[in-house]
Design brief:
This protein is an alpha/beta fold. It has a domain at 2-285: TIM Barrel (Alpha-Beta Barrel). Helix content is 36%, strand content 9%. It contains 15 helices and nine strands. It has helices at 22-26, 33-46, 65-79, 93-101, 127-146, 159-162, 165-180, 204-221, 228-236, 286-293, 302-305, 325-342, 360-364, 386-393, 403-406, and strands at 2-5, 53-55, 82-86, 104-109, 151-157, 185-190, 224-226, 255-258, 264-265. The strands form two sheets. A five-stranded parallel β-sheet has the order 3-4-5-6-7. Helix 8 (204-221) runs parallel beside helix 12 (325-342). The radius of gyration is 28 Å and the shape is globular. Bound molecules: iron/sulfur cluster (SF4) (2 copies). One iron/sulfur cluster (SF4) binds next to loops. One iron/sulfur cluster binds at residues 295-296, 299, 301-302, 305, 307-308, 322, 325, 328-329.
Amino acid sequence: MTVVVLPTGYCNIKCAYCFESEEMRSTAGRPDLPAVERTLDYLLERLPSDMPVGLHGGECTMVPLKDLEALLAMITKRRGHSAVQTNGYQMSPALIGLFKTYNTKVSISWDGPGELNRFRGPDPDDPAATHEYTEKLARNVERLREADVRVSITTVLSRANASDDEKLGRLKEWMLWLHERGVAAGRFNPLFRHPTDYAMELRGEELAHAYTELFDFVTEKQLLWFPFREMIDNLLGLSLGPCVFAGCNPDDTFVYSIFPNGHVGNCDRTMGNGMTPRPDVPRRNFRQEILKQNHCAGCKYWRVCHGGCPAHSVGDGAALTPRFCKADYALYEHIESRLRGLLPNIRLVVDGKGRGNPFSAISDGPDPSSFRPRSAPTPRPRAADPVRSVAEAAPSATPTAPLASAAPTTPPPVEAPRDGRRRLPLVDGGGA
Ligand code: SF4
Ligand code: SF4
């Protein structure tokens, strides 16, 4: 879960694929700071204490600098740090100074070098404008890093940057360029439009190919790009993230948005029709119930996918068809195969054994390696093992005899293990 403060719906850049409404992106205004603060405290009192809080938009750097500072201070006071999602275009020295002061992690929306970034920026049909915009982003990332501000990247995968291997190759080079500049992490999100628009979106098989290529690159180079790392953890049963795989209720989303007037709404990805308040009493998660019995019935990855993000879904009414099923399934299948290839005894969530230590079978069986026998051998007595010597000298006990009757009348000396804990004497034949 996350709380995002939306200080404005306004944006200075009009990305071609933005999921926010045109009306919302054109409406400038200042946030009601006391109302936002009251709502933030109300939510933080009721939500888990490690709930991340960040600024989103619209474009949050479009609010007056003193309002932005008040918001960053508000968040940092409560969390010790702050976060912003920004298009990264407006990056004055004063703004960078604020990010330094308020320990802000800056996530920049950027889809790659050159024309790979053409769906972002002021005009996708103007190559010169895209070039100028993208060059400015590169400079701003370097300026932020020179000021030692933490930077991550959010990249939307689309026909512009991931529809063939040549584009994917350039994307990979750019990821290394970022890594060399200390941009530690990034996140890929697939482009989605309502209605579906394959002039911009990748088809299922194209997205699947891009995902698996990028997954292999990220793991080979040991980079930190999401959702790959999260999907590995999901299969291992260590966590369940990000929100798109966790079974989000479209009526009660995992993300809480705080609007400029202090009202609380659902996740901004659901705001294609403008900001709508969160209902006091959300409906049940009908989407999950229906998907489980229809599109996703029997899917081996249900527990780590849950049909994806409801805002991506295609269809009318309850919007029941997961848009990225083909790609998500293919990527999970690829990761599963990689994990099992490296660790043949790994126990994954999809094995149906529930949560638990995914690595336990590596040490306990069932497929022993040539260095580890199938069942534990009987421990061999050691020369200087007084406990075993006494137990061996004791009257014979049946294997099922209770410990007390098998024990000698005079307690044998108890071995003092190195960890300092006292241990009951061993009784031979009882399997103790
Ligand atoms: S609507 Fe989608 S992006 Fe938003 S919280 Fe739900 S799953 Fe996450
Ligand atoms: S991979 Fe497809 S079928 Fe399986 S849970 Fe996800 S959306 Fe449903």
